Amino acid sequence: MLEEIKQTAAWIKAQTHDFAPEVGIVLGTGLGDFAEAIDTEYALEYKSIPGFPVSTVEGHKGRMIFGRLEGRRVVAMQGRFHYYEGYTMQQVTFPVRVMQQLGISCLFVSNASGGINTSFRTGDLMVITDHINLMPNPLIGPNMAELGPRFPDMHNCYDKALIAKATAIAEEENIKLQYGVYVGGTGPTFETQAEYRYFKAIGGDAAGMSTVPEVIVARHMSIPVFGVSVITNCGLSDEVGDHEDVQRQGRKAGAKMQTLFRRMLRDM
Ligand code: HPA
Questions:
Q1: Mean pLDDT computed over 69-91
Q2: How far is the CA of 28 from the centre of ligand 1 (A)?
Q3: How far is the CA of 108 from the centre of ligand 1 (A)?
Q4: Does 243 have pLDDT greater than 70?
Q5: Pairing label, strands 206-208, 177-184
Q6: Helix (H, G, I), strand (E, B) or coil at 174
Q7: Which of 42, 108, 151, 193 has its CA 20 to 30 A from that of 236?
């Protein structure tokens, strides 16, 4: 596994003439437009990258973009791999391992999720302050000791300094932020009403099907993480979950997310 990660990183370095990204960005459902803002130097389709799985979900472009944004060298994943697509957790998190080998020192993650905190509204941006993992843990299996410890600590999983920075920026930019706990389930079904109530009862504010595996793996390697979630639907209301709605809401709220991420990059 480690060998495969290193081989993929070496291949990417050769393709990108040793472009050394400082920040990794994972763009979630409906948030791919963000990639347009990047002053792109290289773009690699996932299907062309040795060792990478291929994304199968509509609305997920499936490429890795290397370029500059607000003066920072970034690598952005336009589309991610989900457990519900049938990939193993090792496949889902492989790109994060590779980004670490490429040298990122910070990871920004984004996703679409269903609000279960009843004060949330569709289109809200929620800063992820913590998560509850209801998927298989991606670190199950032999530990890659070169990358991190057997029993990684999960305090400060979502970096408090980065959250404070986001709060200050949002105030300046007049962006309303919500804060909360992201519950990561496997999907692909949206939750039943009873499941949304259960997620709320155990301390969740939003429900989603991604992000948690990537964050666990990043934290295994001690990479600071900042995460935001676009609330695309409200689980405890009577509305029905719909992938098109999720994509549309994602794109709408994407502008706010873009402002936030860009300012954070600039101020780093
Ligand atoms: N549940 C799980 N994942 C989601 C949801 C939801 O309600 N909305 C967008 N992604």
A1: 95
A2: 12
A3: 20
A4: yes
A5: parallel
A6: coil
A7: 108
| Cβ 261 under 6 angstroms from ligand 1 | no
Q: How far apart are CA 95 and CA 119, in angstroms?
A: 34
Distance 9 CA to ligand 1 centre (A): 32
Q: Which of 117, 195, 199, 233 to mutate to test the pocket of ligand 1 (most atoms within 8 A of CB)?
A: 233
Percent of the chain at pLDDT > 70 equals 96
What is residue 205's three-state secondary structure?
coil
CA distance 199 to 108: 24
pLDDT tens digit sequence for 93-124: 999 999 999 999 999 999 999 999 999 999 99
pTM of the full predicted structure?
0.94
Q: What are phi and psi of 94, to 5 degrees?
A: -55, -45
Instruction: Give the chain's domains with CATH numbers.
Output: 2-267 (3.40.50.1580)
Q: What gap in Å lies between CA 3 and CA 162, rounded to an integer?
A: 32
CA distance linking residue 12 with residue 105, whole number of Å? 17
Atom of ligand 1 nearest to the CA of 114: 7
> What value does the mean pLDDT take over residues 130-134?
98
Compute the mean pLDDT over every residue in the chain, rounded to the nearest whole number.
Answer: 93
Q: Tell me the three-class secondary structure of 80-139, residue by residue.
A: CCCHHHCCCHHHHHHHHHHHHHHCCCEEEEEEEEEECCCCCCCCCEEEEEEEEECCCCCC
Q: Beta-strand (E) ranges in 156-223?
A: 177-184, 206-208
CA 236/CA 231 separation, integer angstroms: 13
